[in-house]
Here is the input.
Amino acid sequence: MISSTFERMRDAMQFNAEKPDPAILPTPKQLRRSTIAAVIGAAFIGVGVYLPAEYGIDPTGVGNVLGLTEMGEIKQQLAREAAEDELIHGDQSSNLIDGFLGLVVSAAHAQEVWTDTVTFTLAPDASAEIKLVMAEGDVAEYTWVAEGGRINFDLHAHGDGQSIDYDRGRGETEGAGMIEAPFAGEHGWFWRNRDDAEIMVTLQLRGAYAEVIETY
Amino acid sequence: MTSTSRGPFPRLSRRVTALILSVLVLYASSVAQALAHDVTPGDAGYIQEIWGVHVISFIYLGAKHMVTGYDHILFLLGVVFFLYRMKDVAIYVSIFAVGHSVTMLAGVWWGWGINAYIIDAIIGLSVVYKALDNLGAYQKWFGIQPNTKAATLIFGLFHGTGLASKIIEYDISDDGLLWNLLAFNAGVEVGQILALFVILIVMGYWRRSERFMSQAVVANVIMVGLGLWLTVYQINGFLAAA
Here is the structure.
C-alpha cells in the first residue's frame, strides 16, 4: 500500500531524471571492490590520522610524522583543563605543575619604578599562572618580555562570580599595558609555552594590588 | 502496475533505506551535539594556541570540517543523486568546489564575515532547492528547468561563505594565515572526495535496485524536509541570538 503511494507520487512528480541504465552503472563486482577499498581506507585514516589528531593516540607513528599527534595532545589537554575549570567553578586556578623548571621571584623594591618583578621559565608545553589580587577600581601597570622563544598568554580575571577576558596572544615576545579591575578578584595571566624551546618570561608590575599569586 | 515494478526483495530494500535514513539522522544529531559546546577546547582551541604554517594540520581540519558538515554533505548528495556517469559527477563537483573555494578564500582573506546563522539558513535552503530540483518541481510548477550547473555554482558560493564565516570564528593566527588557509581549502576538497566516495558506493548499490526510482522520490522529499529543518533551526538560532 505504501509502495503504491510512492508510485503515484512518482507519476505525479514526473522526475527530473531517467531510470538509470544498468549498462552505465558500476557492476556489483566493482561496488564490492570499492566497498573493501573504502573500509580499508577508513581503517587507515581512523588509526593513522583520526586517533592521533583527536586523542593524541598514535599506535602507528604516522600521526607523529604528519604532525597530527601534537594536535590531539593539545586538544586533550584543553579538554582536561576545561573540565577542571568547570569543577573548580572558575574561582581558583587549576593546578598546573607539569614541566615547570624554575622560578625566581624578587620583590625588588630597589628597582626604580617597578614594584615587583616575577621571573619564570617554562619548558615546552608547560604553563603557569600569575595573578594579582585586586579590589574593584584598582589599576595596575605591567610590562613583560619573553626570551628563548615565543609564548602564548591569556590575560583574564575572575572573582565575585564574574569573569572577563582582557587580552589574548600567541607567539608573542613582549607586552605592556594596564589592568583596570572592574570587580574584586584575581586578575592576571595564564601563560603557556607552545614553542619548541625553553622560554624565560620576565614580568614587571606596579600599581594598586594586594599580592601576587603564582601557580605553576 | 504496482506488483510488476516491485523488486525481488522489496522488504529488504525498504529495510536498507530505513537503515540508511536512521544512520543519517543519528549522524546529524551527533554533529549537532558536538557543535553545542561554547568553550575553547577542540579544533578552535587548538587553532588558537598555534601560529606559523601547519599545512597538514589544516588539511586535516578542512577535511574534518567537510566530512562532519552535514549541510554540505546533504547538498552534495542532492547534486549527485541523479548523476549516473562519473564524468558528470566530476563536472558538477568541480563546479561546486570552484564556487565554495572562491568565497571561502576571499571571505577569510578580506574578512567578509556574514552572520553564521543567516548563511547556514541559506545553505539549508540550497538543500531544499536541489531536492525540489531533483523531484522536477520547477518544471511542474513553473514549466521551466533552471540551469543546474549555474545553481551548483551559485550555491557553491554560498557554501564557501559559510565556510569562511566558520574559519573567521576559528581566529587563525596572522602568522602563516595564507598557507594555512590554502591547506584548509585543500582539506575541504579532500574531505569532499572522501565523502563522495562513500556516497557513490551507497548510491551504486541503491541504483541497481529495482525500486530505486520510487524510493528516490521519498529520499528527495525527506531531503526537502531536512533542508527546511536546517533552515528553521538556523533562523531560530539567529532570532535567539539577536
Notes: Chain A is about 30% helix and 35% strand. The two ends of chain A are 71 Å apart (CA to CA).
